[in-house]
Amino acid sequence: MATANSHMSLLLLLLALVALTPSTSASQNLSLNLHQLLQLLGFPPGLIPDPVESFSISLVGLLPPTVNFTIHFEEPCYVQYVIPNYFAPVFTGQITFGKISGMIGHKDQFSSGEWIDMYDVTVVGEDLLFEYATTNLTYNRAYFEEVKTCTYGPLLADHSNQLISQLPMISAE
Ligand SMILES: *[C@@H]1O[C@H](CO)[C@@H](O)[C@H](O)[C@H]1NC(C)=O
Ligand SMILES: *[C@@H]1O[C@H](CO)[C@@H](O)[C@H](O)[C@H]1NC(C)=O
Ligand SMILES: *[C@@H]1O[C@H](CO)[C@@H](O)[C@H](O)[C@H]1NC(C)=O
């Protein structure tokens, strides 16, 4: 489906966005661009909720066009799709057509009550395959079309906290 031509136009678009994103004054309209960007990359626009405080992308590969993203939420963001979702104030990962990978700062709450890290999302036809630290789930993309709004809540421990907890105590704050 993704032909050489569509790769080329996507690449040009991503380059344009990379050139544009350093201008922080446009932050009012960045969340709109983020949802459009998701759609251009084959994802439903509501996969990431509003309000996004800011986001930036950097090009890390050309074939296929691949960018790393950093999304900032003002506070820890909770939103319910099928199950409860959590986005850390700093949410990062890599995105290319039909695939988001290496996510840090996104968890879902399972019926056990436990929050499990989500690492990858892959478009599989009309479905999205979500890969977690311990399992996989598949949901129809229709659940993620509507752009939902965050409810703010407590910060959850993340990967880096786990690593930091194994080091001698060095407080940064
Ligand atoms: C955001 O976009 C809307 C509609 O395109 C425009 O009217 C508004 O001025 C923009 N706001 C900023 C801060 O750029
Ligand atoms: C891009 O993001 C991926 C996944 O998060 C990470 O493994 C990689 O080191 C990043 N690359 C650069 C150049 O930042
Ligand atoms: C999740 O899906 C990936 C990709 O299809 C597969 O490699 C992996 O083994 C699956 N993991 C589980 C726990 O089912």
TrEMBL record:
Entry annotated with the keyword Signal: yes
Signal peptide coordinates: 1-26
Keyword RNA-binding part of the UniProt annotation: no
SUPFAM superfamilies, per the entry: At5g01610-like
InterPro entries: At5g01610-like, DUF538
The entry's keywords: Signal
Gene3D superfamilies: At5g01610-like (2.30.240.10)
One protein family per Pfam: DUF538
Name assigned to this protein: Uncharacterized protein
Organism of derivation: Helianthus annuus (Common sunflower)
